[in-house]
Amino acid sequence: MSGQDKTRATVDIYGQPYKIVGTESTSHIRLVASIVDDKMREISKKNPYLDINKLAVLTAVNIVNEYVKLKEEYEMLEKKLHQKEE
Amino acid sequence: MSGQDKTRATVDIYGQPYKIVGTESTSHIRLVASIVDDKMREISKKNPYLDINKLAVLTAVNIVNEYVKLKEEYEMLEKKLHQKEE
């Protein structure tokens, strides 16, 4: 979204409501929340004795792991594109 | 890393120790943990009254948001590359 428009959305993550404020669309915020919710449930299934606090931190770890890998792939792709442009 | 090699590393995130098991290198795991730690401290600074549980969930939301955006950029770059290859 352009300018300083703020979107406010209340989303449910792992049974708890969260008020999210962002510059993205409501549908983007809902998509992001549903990915976090899915990931928490996936990790909780594999580790049923984790408390919610550790579960949330491990969810963040998991997602950063995927982010760092995607970032590396992105940089490789960028390099490939630059080589083609030379 | 190749095959089924598992790496075990204990990392500190927001003052708590976490045992992380993965197929990535120890340095990769430490990098990921430090990104989560930084992000939690950044969000906590802006929202000093959040409990650790909500802080961790909002950290995950923040990171997924960046992941989704990077994914979109990645797909755009891929499309661009395919067009050049045609």
From TrEMBL, chains A, B:
The places in or outside the cell where this protein is found are: Cytoplasm
**Gene Ontology biological-process annotations:** division septum assembly; FtsZ-dependent cytokinesis; septin ring assembly
Q: Which Pfam families match?
A: ZapA
Q: Which InterPro entries match?
A: Bac_CellDiv_Activator, Cell_div_ZapA-like, Cell_div_ZapA-like_sf, Cell_div_ZapA_firmicutes
Which keywords has UniProt assigned to this entry?
Answer: Cell cycle, Cell division, Coiled coil, Cytoplasm, Septation
The answer to whether UniProt assigns keyword Cell division to this entry is: yes
What name does this protein carry? Cell division protein ZapA
Summarizing the function annotation, the protein's role is:
Activator of cell division through the inhibition of FtsZ GTPase activity, therefore promoting FtsZ assembly into bundles of protofilaments necessary for the formation of the division Z ring. It is recruited early at mid-cell but it is not essential for cell division.
Subunit and partners: Homodimer. Interacts with FtsZ.
Q: Which family does it belong to?
A: Belongs to the ZapA family. Type 2 subfamily.
Which domain of life does the protein's organism represent?
Bacteria
> Mind telling me which GO cellular component terms the entry cites?
cell division site; cell septum; cytosol; plasma membrane
